[in-house]
Structure to design on (84 residues):
């Protein structure tokens, strides 16, 4: 089964919103808060090319932030990546 990872920082209203969105759909995810981890932020930016938060990944596939995750839920892409 595919694994959802949500990279967050604080304060971040979109991070809270994406966690709520996933939780309301009964999806489990691993949260990695890198608010105080400059090296982790740099590694994530290098890996994904994104400097904003949240960043949602399904296994190694970047979905994006809150808006992209919401769109992927709506159009079925997220379910397809999760194998549902």
């Amino acid at each position: 089964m595919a694994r959802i990872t949500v990279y967050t920082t604080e304060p971040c209203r979109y991070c809270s919103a994406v966690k709520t969105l996933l939780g309301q759909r009964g999806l489990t995810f691993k949260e990695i808060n890198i608010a105080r981890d400059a090296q982790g932020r740099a590694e994530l930016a290098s890996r994904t090319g994104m400097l904003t938060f949240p960043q949602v990944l399904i296994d190694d596939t970047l979905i994006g932030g809150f808006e992209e995750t919401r769109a992927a839920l709506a159009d079925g892409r997220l379910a397809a990546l999760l194998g549902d």
